[in-house]
Write a structure and sequence with these properties.
single chain; alpha/beta; TIM Barrel; 8-stranded mixed beta sheet; 11 helices; about 15% strand; globular; binds iron/sulfur cluster
């Protein structure tokens, strides 16, 4: 029996978070009580990943700082000589923690997020005064020549903020930016979705969003890249890249681990297809279930291709939505 070979591992060490963003796709927040893996379980996942020839870990949450063993886990990654991205909303990143993070030889990138052009607008989405902490963290790593990646997620009323945000972030030589519109409200309750529906950028505004972003990509070519909205041509090109590969879109060899240990090929929460508990084994047999999943991906792509002829799509979420309908 062949097993799926991992190159990279995306691990959500907790869904607890010190912020409570109105658009959070995994319903993170301080109120959240979720099942978490133990320190030992996570360390054994890292060791098995390394043994399989794994190279790269994305260490994320929720907010990883909510775990008291966070640095112990990062020590483990470093001792295994694994490179990693560390993702944080930056709210809890004081000087001491920043220095400690920067001391890891495996730290390849600091990932954080901005939700509006100034502290007040940012706070209106995430509920906390974290804007200045984000800028401080990016500045700190910039001075150390450690790359940072800022995910800018914009509500419908904030689309025009992208210009001011890029102006600020382009001052840092080691900072890359991805700008995405809020296109759904993830795992929120029906009441929360109703209350916050004005945050969503409707598909008819995608064209305006794209045009604006396009201009800024030309102005700041070293700083900003693509967004998460896919038009028909882009989807066709992407599928053409992997359609002849027997592993189809899984050919990039990456998996995601949820806080409770669920092993999945999806980074979104509403994909119900789980391949076991990561702390028991990272070995995913390439059996009937595995190829059944690939067939579902192909079917989801067919639906999406058809849809994308009518309007632009937020591709990853759309795949998971179709899969949850198909099974
Ligand atoms: S910082 Fe991230 S995990 Fe926390 S509430 Fe916001 S979107 Fe969710």
């Amino acid at each position: 029996m062949d097993f799926y070979k991992l190159n990279s591992l995306y691990i959500e060490v907790t869904h607890a978070c010190n912020q409570h963003c109105r658009h959070c796709y995994l319903d993170g927040g301080i109120h959240r009580k979720n099942e978490e893996m133990s320190t030992g379980q996570i360390k054994s996942i890292f060791a098995e990943f390394k043994n399989q020839g794994g190279k790269y870990v994305v260490f994320t949450g929720g907010e990883p700082l909510m775990r008291s063993d966070m640095f112990e886990l990062l020590d483990c990654l470093d001792s295994l000589e694994l490179r990693f991205t560390f993702a944080s909303n930056s709210l809890g990143m004081n000087r001491e923690r920043l220095e400690k993070l920067a001391s890891y030889k495996g730290l390849a990138e600091y990932f954080t997020s901005i939700l509006g052009e100034n502290p007040e607008k940012h706070k209106a989405i995430c509920g906390k005064d974290s804007f200045d902490s984000v800028i401080n963290a990016v500045e700190f790593f910039d001075k150390k020549d450690i790359p940072s990646f800022v995910q800018v997620t914009l509500a419908n009323d904030y689309i025009d903020d992208m210009e001011t945000i890029l102006e600020k972030l382009s001052a840092f030589k080691n900072c890359s930016v991805k700008i995405t519109p809020i296109a759904s409200l993830g795992c929120k309750s029906a009441e929360e979705k109703e209350a916050d529906k004005n945050l969503i950028v409707p598909p008819e505004r995608f064209e305006y969003f794209h045009k604006k972003l396009d201009e800024l990509c030309k102005k700041y070519p070293n700083c900003v890249g693509d967004d998460n909205i896919y038009e028909h041509d882009k989807i066709v090109n992407m599928i053409n890249e992997y359609k002849e590969n027997p592993l189809y879109s899984l050919c990039w060899h990456s998996v995601c681990v949820r806080p409770n240990g669920d092993l999945s090929f999806s980074y979104n929460m509403n994909n119900p297809y789980v391949f076991g508990k990561a702390f028991e084994s990272l070995k995913i047999p390439m059996d009937e279930k595995f190829f059944g999943y690939i067939n579902l991906l192909k079917k989801a792509d067919e639906f999406i291709l058809e849809e994308s002829e009518k309007h632009a799509i937020e591709y990853d979420t759309a795949v998971d939505n179709y899969i949850s309908v198909l099974i």
